[in-house]
Every structure is written in C-alpha cells, then in structure tokens.
Write a structure and sequence with these properties.
By secondary structure, the protein is an all-alpha fold. It starts with a helix and ends with a helix.
Length: 153
Amino acid sequence: MSAAYMNQYFENQVNTASPEQLLIMLYNGAIRFVGEAEEAMTSKKIAYRGERISKAIAILSELSATLDHEIGGEIAANLESLYDYMIRTLLAANIQDDASKLVEVREMLSGMRDTWLDAIDKVRSEQAAEVSESVAKKYEAAPAGYRPLAVAL
C-alpha cells in the first residue's frame, strides 16, 4: 500500500471517529510510539528514538491541553498531573538512555487506555439498556393487536 493511500485512510478514520474513538486512537498512538522508542533504544538508533519520544510527548500534551477542568474537576487535575509526569519521565528516559522509564510510561498508558475502554463500554451498555427500556414502554402502550412490521412479515 502506498503512503498516500495510508494517510488518506487514516485521515478518514480520524474525521469519522467519535470523541471516544479519538481518545482511544490517541492512547494507542502514544503506546505505539513509546514501544518504537524502546526498540530504537535497544538498537541504538538515537535520532529515531528521539523522534518517537517526541511524538508520544505531543500526544500527551494534546491530551492534557484538551482536559476540561470545569467539568472534570479533580479527575481532570489528576489526569493533567499524570500526563505531566509521563512527559517528564519520557524526557528523562531519552536523556538518561533508560529503557525502564519507557516501559513505565507504556504500561501507564496501556492501563489508562484499558480503563477508558471499560468506562466507554459501561456507558454504552447503560445507554443500550435505556433505549431497550424506552422501546419496551412504547410497545406496552400500543393498542391491542398492534404488531410491528418486522413481526408481521
């Protein structure tokens, strides 16, 4: 596949993604870049390691910048502190050539992503239950003998 095609595909994914999907995409990207930095550190590709760490830091900076402290309150403040800690740890990993710091950040990011995935699934399940309950109430109020088209066929 050509790079142009891949860029177009990725751009379409981003443009059509929900806010939840974008959040997960950002976490996945940061995790991938930190993992690539780990591999570059092992193979002594210093410039590439720095590029990958810079990309992960850019994602963490974006995640931090988009926090809504008015709505999120203490949770937003805690997330901001975590993102700041991860940025500082990535910088230290690069300066000190310390792969253990990269592993620490990658594991933190993976845990946070998994927590967000669980929260998203829970909200979706609750919303689906509310919709099912609403539909059931509508059919209870339907006249006797009423059958939806799908059942009548």
